[in-house]
Amino acid sequence: MEKLSKVLKKVEAVVFDMDGVLSDTEPIYLNIEKKIISRYGKTLTDRLIEKIKGSSLVDAMGTIVRELDIKADPQKLALEEEREFRNYILDNPIPVVPCAKDLIEIVKNLGYRIALATSTAFDNAIVILSKTGFKDHFEVIITGDKVENTKPAPDIYLKCSQMLNIDPQFCLAIEDSLNGCKAAKNAGMLVIAVNVDNKAVMEFEKVADMVYNSNCELMEDFKKINRGAY
Asked: Which H helix or E strand runs over 192?
């Protein structure tokens, strides 16, 4: 908690990632990707799954096609994945990552401005945010289709900062992927990584200012924060 207090001293806004931080939608993407590439007799390795995490669908499929030597157009595969994903989220409830709602409430109650930066396309993001009850919490929502370059490029976080009218150095990003952490760091923001598996902690510590195994763990530290006592 002492380290979190130090990180938060100059923070004015908190920018949340969505998939894997708020909505538990990454397994949905993963199942669709596995289904698509199985047609080519290929399987996703754990290393490749981690590598594409946080990327846009086009970038993710580009990486998959290149690394698995699949003879297919990644843009067409990404469009197929996007259609299947949209059909799924329209027809099914969207699971929420444990402690996500409480974490947002605590951050808001501490007086921070709140924004969202997600690689997910705008239309799908709005469906997810609406169905999970998160939509009205955010002052600014920036999606992957609204910037030229997606994570790990800094564009999405720089645009968030611009829309908030707050310098990136006074913003804290909460991310669950290395690509997302790199994007926020490249933008000049502070970064907290959450929902990180123990075996990946050392890799995340190279990029993020703090690393937590879960939202719940971070939430407990936020509960102890008395912002007025900084």
From this structure: strand 190-193
Q: Could you tell me the strand order of the sheet in which 13-16 lies?
A: 140-143, 113-118, 13-16, 171-175, 190-193, 210-211
Residue with tokens 């981690």: 50
* pLDDT digits 0-9 by tens, 34-78: 999 999 999 998 889 988 988 889 999 999 999 999 999 999 999
Residue 221 a catalytic site member: no
Structure tokens at 80: 């197929």
Indicate the Cα dihedral angle 5, 7, 8, 14, nearest 10°.
-140
What domains, with CATH codes, occur in the chain?
Answer: 2-24+95-229 (3.40.50.1000), 26-91 (1.10.150.240)
Q: How far apart are CA 135 and CA 101, in angstroms?
A: 11
Cross-strand partners of 175: 193
d(CA 117, CA 158): 10
Q: What is the pTM of this model?
A: 0.91
> Token match 């050392």: residue?
202
Alpha-carbon distance of 187 to 167, in angstroms, equals: 10
Give the helix, strand, coil percentages of the chain, each rounded to 5.
Answer: 55, 10, 35
CB atoms within 10 A of CB 68: 16
* Rounded-to-integer distance, Cα 210 and Cα 55, Å: 21
CA-closest candidate to residue 53, choices 187, 158, 200, 209: 200
